[in-house]
Amino acid sequence: MAPNLKDCRVSCKLSWEDLQALCRREGLLCSHLGVRKDNVNDYEVEYLCNYKKRKTQEFFLVKWKGYTESENTWEPRKNLRCPKLLRQFRQDMRAALLQANQPLDPVSLNPSIASFLTQKAKQRIQLQKWEGLMNQTCKQKGRIFVCNDVDLGGPPRDFTYINTNKFGKGVEVNTVTMGCACDDCTSQPVNGCCPGLLSHRRAYNDSGQVKVMPGVPIYECNANCRCGPDCRNRVVQRGIQYDLCIFKTANGRGWGVRTLQRIFKNAFVMEYLGEVITTEEAERRGVVYDKQGVTYLFDLDYVDDVYTLDAAHYGNISHFVNHSCDPNLQVYNVFIDILDERLPRIAFFAKRGIKAGEELTFDYKMTIDPIDVESSKMDLDLNRAGYEGSPIKRVHMECKCGMKNCRKYLF
Known about the structure:
This protein has a 4-stranded mixed beta sheet with strand order 6-11-13-12. A 4-stranded mixed beta sheet has the order 7-16-17-10, with no helix packed on it. Strands 1-2-3 form a 3-stranded antiparallel beta sheet. Helix content is 20%, strand content 19%. 32% of the residues are buried. The termini are far apart. Helix 3 (83-99) packs across helix 4. The protein has helices at residues 5-12, 16-26, 83-99, 111-138, 194-197, 279-292; strands spanning 45-54, 57-64, 73-76, 144-147, 160-161, 166-167, 218-219, 244-248, 255-259, 268-272, 275-278, 297-300, 307-310, 314-315, 322-323, 329-335, 345-350, 361-362. It has 3 domains: 1-37, no CATH class; 43-135, CATH 2.40.50.40; 141-362, Beta-clip-like (Beta Complex). Strand 2 and strand 3 form a beta hairpin. The protein is of the alpha/beta class. It contains 6 helices and 18 strands. The longest helix is centred in the N-terminal third of the chain and has 28 residues, at 111-138.
């Protein structure tokens, strides 16, 4: 074991890859880092950043993992064992040459294209690290992917990915202390299960699709219930079940989210997570967000306008879901371990079948009267987006959803 490597990693905040490179540079062997006699002289390509051709032989400028850019070296193609990086570099180079209207079989690259390829490689590494961190945090069945083929922008700044809501100062939280005694919540009478105990019927069918109308609260089984994690009355709490991709939009709407898998109508898609704050704090933050021309404030006004969910700096993938005047997601209020009606969890379900590759959207003005709409005689078109009294704080922003029924402005 090389001396003091563990202490070095802590004090210098070095990654394992950097420590491996340090060992190889100094000729040190380390069983913990996998640096042995037979591979001490091996080097790992971090990215490729330039290209040239001499007669029929191709050369690539290599940035080595754990080494500085001043230590980059030109290497012939035969020396490189990184087919995925080579394939990606060629794709980026071809795209850059086409954009610059230059020959696709160059002898060398001009400095501007070489600089672009280096920035693109660095961006891809940053996005891959961000992607890995999000998947490590959420720990759910559905995987998160990241793609930016539009510009050189990296991960958002000042944003922390979270797996559960974060409660701010002044928010009173009381978790439920009892649950249902059902062994099988679907086969036993509903009046003994969580929804029935709160005078509601079960919200899901046997496939986990929501069967109550928007505006009707959903009560799932909680941590104190006798039923297990496979209970059919546990849907939102299982997290995202579909592979989703955060991608950069090409029409100036920033980041967006698309599904990589088919989603059936009424299926749970994701929860809107953020920092739960008081309405007073929301008003203060709203002034700042209005000046920035953005907003992630979602009023939790199921019964009283007391708390607001702010996903600006803390949130999950829902932070990146764009608005549409004709959305494919519908908002529902869900109660699980907190039954306080001032603190519903906000869940998105599919309004219709959603194809793989389709962008996910919800209407920022979508809200339903909290009165039980099944028993209400109000004449409401529940499939129509854009009810008055939005749960999202308003800033006067142009809508770019591109739908036929676009209202031209978000609010």
